[in-house]
Each structure stands twice: as structure tokens, then as C-alpha cells.
Amino acid sequence: MSSVSVSQFFNFCNIRITNQESEISSKKFVLGMHSDNRHCPHCSHCGTKMQKIHSTRERYVRDLSLSEKKVFIHLRYFQLFCPQCHRYRVEKFDFLEPSNRYTFRFARYVHSLCKLMTVKEVSEHLDLDWKTVKNIDKHFLEEEFGDTIYDGLSILMIDEISIKKRKKYLTVIVDYATGRIVWMGKDHWASTLDSFFEKMTDEQRKAIKAVALDMWDPYIKSVRQNCPNAKIVFDLFHVVKQFNRAMNTVRNREYRNAKKEHKKVIKGSRYILLKGKRKLNQNEKQHLKELIEINKNISTTYILKDLLKELWKYKYLACAKKALAEWTRIAKESGIPEMIYYARRLNKYSYGIINHCKYQINSGKIEGTNNTLKVIKRSAYGYLDPNYFILKCKQAFPGK
Ligand SMILES: [Zn+2]
After folding, report:
1. Are 229 and 209 in contact (CB under 8 A)?
2. Does residue 107 sit within a domain?
3. In 3-state terms, what secondary structure has residue 231?
4. Would you place residue 25 in the very low, low, confident or very high pLDDT band (cuts 50, 70, 90)?
5. Domain check: are 41 and 183 in the same one?
6. Percent over 90 (pLDDT), the chain
7. What are the backbone dihedrals phi and psi of residue 147, each rounded to the nearest 5 degrees, phi first?
8. How far is the CA of 49 from the centre of ligand 1 (A)?
9. Alpha carbon of 34 to ligand 1 centroid (Å)
10. Are residue 328 and residue 282 in the same domain, yes or no?
């Protein structure tokens, strides 16, 4: 064993290093430590000085690695009587929690890795149980993001994300101005949102000027009840997403009824119809042209989609109302059942489309948040522990 000391790497307070053990072939490095008896031990619970030793204990504590070796501290410590707590307590150390099997600095390192890697990757990298990795990261996240901060909110974006293979939902509330995830809660009902608004003061609720939403009645109901001054705005991203579903139903029916030679044109066109015109390559543009030529209903639906997007470009109320009425007329006259149904739906929710004139919500912002949340979800956090998933989402959107 080398005579060069490693103590400089372990400059913890009130500690004496007693020995070090490491075999060349082993991947472990064990450092023996005990409390420096020149210092009076303090209670790990209340910090009071203690004197009467009850017993000596020992445990192994994981610390930061040295070179490729995993470092364990073999810690011997006292249990003493605390005059303040009136019971036996273990002595306090500045480098670890009394109940943990890792040092503070090791925990901070795990947390910093979790910002860059998945729990599984960190677990494999450090050769540490994944539950320990998750619990360490969750502990830090709770300190940083556990509280809901209601101050300064004026425009909210409310969305939902499905977890556990679409059987369960989480509601997400974002501060539109900063992009910060303010709150996330289980389910997607009016009562879900109520539980968020209930904790706000009257002043904070009155300060909410607008809320961007999907056309989802439970959310609408809760916003109307809780935010007396809020205008409800339906954003383009969610409306088009719903329209795409209707468009796909039209396409599927047209495929079933099509002549054999037309079937091959309709087949595989779903993606082309969903994608923006500008994003299509030459082959896709040609495919779209053929599709529009051979099928009137698909062609009409496609035009209606383009016109629908235009509705969000108006800045004057009267113009927006007129354009919406025109859209509804074309949709109804098309005779396509899905378009007639959709026109009725848009009329029911027309107030939220018109409100967009006053509150120009950037749909890309909503789409961006939505996509990032899906990426976090795919990292498997959500399936294991919804509370941890919520904290990871809040960490990903801390706000500017
Ligand atoms: Zn105490």
C-alpha cells in the first residue's frame, strides 16, 4: 500500500481516518473513520451537546469514487443520551444524514447525473440500486420544486398528458409568460383544476387574465368558476390536433369506398395530410396532388384544415367572427358528416377562438412543452412514480 495519504480528499469535520484498505484487484476502496474524540459530540436531531455514551455503532457509507474504485467509508460512531431530546440519539456528522448510507456529496453527484441521464443509466454507471438513485434525485427535486409558487401569474396554459399507457392523465399548468410549469396534478377533471385554484388567494385568482385550453368541458367549467376575470382561449395546436382525428376518419372511410386504382393513392397518405405543406418533399407533394385530384371529400377536408389554421391569424374580432362563420358554412355545405359535426363543435366553442384576437397565444410554445413532456415520459419516470415524474417535469421547465 502506498504511504501517500488520501486524507486530503476526505476533509470532513471532526473525523479521524484510522485506516485504508484496497487491494489492487478489488474495485472497492474502504476508508476507516471515527469521530475525533477531541470534539464533543452533538445530537444529530437537535444539535445539543451530548456526553453520556450509550454504545458504539458502525456502518458502511458510499462516497465519491476515487479513480475507478468505489469508495466506502467504514464509519464508527456513538449513540449518546441527548438532554434536549430526552432519549438516545446518534452523533451528528457534517457529511451525511444519520440514516443514509451515502454522503451528502455523493448524493449531490447522483442528482447532478440525473439531470443528464435516466435513472437506469445512472444506476448502471454507479453500480447503485435504481430505487436509491431515484430517491436521492427526488429528495433534491422536492426541495427545489416541491412547493407551488402562485405569484405573478397572469396567463395560464392548461394541458393534459397521459401516463400509464393512456389509462391515466395528469393535468399540467404552465405560466405562459415564463414557460414555467407551475403545477401538475393527477387526473384531468374540473376537481383536479379546482384543487389548484383553491390554494390561490382571491387576488391571485382575479389576476388571471387568460387561460389557454383544449376544448375540454371539465377544465372550462373550473376556470369559469375560479377565475372571474379570465378569458378562455382555445389554442391552434389542440384544435388542429382534434381536427386531424376527424380528417383521418374521413380518409379511412374514403379508402374503404374507393376504387381499386385509387386505393393505392389513399393508402399511406395519412402522414402527408398531417404534415405541413412546407415540410413535404417533392415525392410527397406529388402524392398529395394526386390524392386531391382523385378524391373530392379528402380534398375538401384538406382545404378546410388550411382555412381552419387561418382563423388564428385574425387580430380584429369582427374579421375573426366573419371568417369563422364562413368556415362553418363551407364545412356544412361539404356534406361530409365529420366536417358538419366539427363545424357544430367549433360554433359551440367559438368564444374561445374569437378570444384569441385579444390574447395571441403562441401555439408553438404549447406544442413544444407537450413534446418535451412526452420525451420525459418515455424515459420511464412516469410509470414508476407519478410524483417523481411531476418533479422531473417541473425541473425541465423552471421558467425564465
Ligand atoms: Zn437532541
Report:
1. yes
2. no
3. strand
4. confident
5. no
6. 81
7. -90, 150
8. 8
9. 20
10. yes
Residue 168 forms part of a structural domain: yes
- Collapsing DSSP states into helix, strand and coil, what is residue 89? strand
The C-alpha cell that represents 36 in the structure block: 475525533
Alpha carbon separation from 362 to 93, 235, 304 (Å, rounded): 51, 8, 21
Three cell numbers at 82?
441527548
Residue type, 297: N
> Rg of the Cα trace of the chain?
30
Residue 104: the pLDDT is 97
Q: Clarify whether residues 294 and 344 are in a common domain.
A: yes
Determine the distance separating the centroid of ligand 1 and the alpha carbon of 175, expressed in angstroms.
43
Residue 135: half-sphere exposure toward Cβ, Cα within 13 Å:
8
Number of domains in the chain: 3
∠323-177-214 over CA atoms, to 5°? 45
CA of 139 to the centre of ligand 1 (A): 23
Chain segment 343-365, per-residue pLDDT in tens:
999 999 999 999 999 999 988 88
Residue 108 lies in a domain: no
pLDDT at 23: 74
* Contact between residue 295 and residue 329 where contact means Cβ atoms under 8 Å apart: no
What kind and span of H or E run contains 78?
Answer: strand 69-82
- Class of residue 243 by CB neighbours under 10 A (exposed 0-12, middle 13-18, buried 19+): buried
Domain hosting 283: range is 236-357
DSSP SS3 for 280: coil
- Name the H helices within the chain: 104-114, 119-126, 130-145, 190-197, 202-206, 217-226, 236-257, 260-266, 270-274, 282-294, 296-310, 317-333, 337-348, 350-354, 363-378, 381-384, 386-396
**pTM for the whole structure:** 0.88
Closest by CA to 148, choosing from 184, 178, 177, is 184
CA of 89 to the centre of ligand 1 (A): 7
Q: How many CB atoms lie within 10 A of CB 102?
A: 21
Q: Clarify whether residues 352 and 367 are in a common domain.
A: no
Count of residues for the chain? 400
* Distance (Å) from CA 94 to ligand 1 centroid: 16
Q: Among positive and negative, which fits the CA dihedral 80, 81, 82, 85?
A: positive
**Ligand 1 centre from 144 Cα, in Å?**
27
Q: pLDDT value at position 185?
A: 95
Q: Which amino acid is at 183?
A: W
